[in-house]
Amino acid sequence: MFILNNSIGYFVAPVFYVGVLHAAILSSLGFSDTIANLPESVYMWLTPLPVLIAWFWRSTCYLRRMLVITYAFKGSAGLVAAALFLMAPQWLAVGIVVHAAVIGVTNGVATMCLWELIGRGMTPARRGWTLGITFGVGPLFAVLGSCASQLILSGNFLDLIHVNPIPKPWCYVVLFGTTGPAMAVAGACVFLAHLPRESSAEPGMSVAGVMRGLRQYFTYRLILIAIGGFLLTSAGGNMILNNLALFVRDATGERPEEYTGVQLALRFGCKSLFGFVLGWMLARFQAKTPALATTLICVAGVGWALVVPGKWYLFSFGLLGAGELFYVYYLNYIVGCSAPERIRENTAYTNVIMIVVSFMPLIYGGISDHYGLRASFVLALGILVVATLIVWTLLPQRPVPSSHAVDSMNP
After folding, report:
1. Quick check: 392 pLDDT over 90?
2. Distances from the Cα of 103 to the Cα of 73, 296, 314, angstroms
3. Which residue of 10, 82, 116, 197 pairs with 177 in a disulfide if CB–CB is 3.0 to 4.6 A?
4. Which distant-in-sequence residues (6+ apart) come within 8 Å of 336 by Cβ?
5. Phi/psi zone of residue 211: left (φ > 0), alpha (ψ -120 to 50 degrees), beta?
6. Which residue has the higher pLDDT, 86 or 5?
7. Closest Cα partner for 177 from 69, 70, 84, 42?
């Protein structure tokens, strides 16, 4: 179920990755740039809400219900947006913003519930193979979905496939409407999972219980070190991608837009290839190895961008695309450090804490304005080296749940 539902999510990524498509649609329909950028902002504003859901509905008996409701909301939001394109275009901006808001909440809920299932229900080795297959096969579905969306919108994919594009607004109806049946399939897949039995130690909803959970998350040494590696890898390897795209002009002498499709193919293609390898690492060598490997892949990606000229420079997008799996394998380490009853909460906290590094693109932009794009790459590389040293020297190979986890579960 984990593999199937993540693959379905990858396939509809052009719609569920709120940002570019939503902004392009609103801009093409004559809305201002402010309105065009509003969906992504609303999406980001609502990503902390799953933390509240994790606090209020803590028992495992809610897992299946929460997942089914989550997929129902995601599919319904897409169908409503599709209907507005046809029947009530004057409300389209509101509909797309609401769609972004629903995705902002439900993506986090689905993530924390799915990770709780594999965190409770699988051995580390079995989880390694599951993650390897999921993030090896899943990105291929993202390439397929991106190809399909590009053909629907423009009729051309990388000058390799040409079809007659679907006219507006029907192309948008198809894109958003497809998410309805896709999420219906995902909801049905939930019933394939065997849920873990509810423990007598399940924490109930209380302010004291929430505070104990927060204290456990933010004071346990191994979780803090893993969070440090997680955030530094994100800051150095993920947030530099915008500047990396701008540097295409300097490296190749051509416009960055000419290579957007190539960047996409390289990012997801390498992510798929490395996804299998990293899953094997987790199954064979325990949780630290694939987490550290993602940071080292990001080091290689930024280093490649600094030293390789011409079109071969574009391979840095492939390396950093594979390095984006840092999210999966650092989160896996944090799940391994968590008591079973705290997995859902700790996953939610980890999703929200990424806001700490959300300012890094602005820093990279300021540095490149004053000192050039290469200077921003040097800073990113330095951050990644620090992350490598911290994780390599301070994290044990196998995560260990905190010693006071059992005490913190007592009501």
Report:
1. yes
2. 9, 31, 31
3. 82
4. 119, 124, 287, 398, 399, 400, 401
5. alpha
6. 5
7. 84
Distance CA 243, CA 274 (A): 23
Q: Is 230 found in the same domain as 152?
A: no
- What is the rounded distance in angstroms from the CA atom of residue 315 to the CA atom of residue 386? 23
pLDDT in tens, 234-275: 999 888 887 887 787 777 777 655 566 667 778 888 888 899
Q: Note whether 321 and 305 are within 8 A (CB).
A: no
Task: Return all residues near 221 (Cβ < 8 A) that are at least 6 apart.
Answer: none
Which of 117, 52, 112 lies closest to 351 in space, CA to CA? Answer: 112
- According to the 3-state scheme, what is the secondary structure of 124-171? HHHHHHHHHHHHHHHHHHHHHHHHHHHHHHHCEECCCEECCCCCCCHH
Range of the domain at 324: 206-397
Residue 80, domain CATH: 1.20.1250.20
Q: How far apart are CA 173 and CA 79, in angstroms?
A: 8
Residues with Cβ within 8 Å of residue 32, at least 6 apart in sequence: none
With a CB cutoff of 8 Å and minimum separation 6, the contacts of 130 are: 2, 3, 118, 122, 279
pTM of the shown model:
0.81
> CB neighbours of 46 closer than 8 A, spacing ≥ 6?
101, 104, 105
- CB atoms closer than 10 angstroms to residue 387: 28
- Higher pLDDT among residues 385 and 48, named by residue: 385
Question: Does the structure show a pLDDT above 50 at 406?
Answer: no
Mean pLDDT is lowest, of 142-146, 188-192, 276-280, 405-409, for 405-409
Same domain, 249 and 139: no
pLDDT at 152: 82
Q: Are residues 11 and 158 in the same domain?
A: yes
Give 369-383 pLDDT, tens digit per residue.
888 889 999 999 999
Q: Read off the tokens for 41.
A: 């902002």
pLDDT digits (tens, 9 = 90+) for 92-133: 778 888 888 898 889 888 988 888 888 887 888 888 889 999
Angle at CA 327, nearest 5°, toward 139 and 383?
A: 120
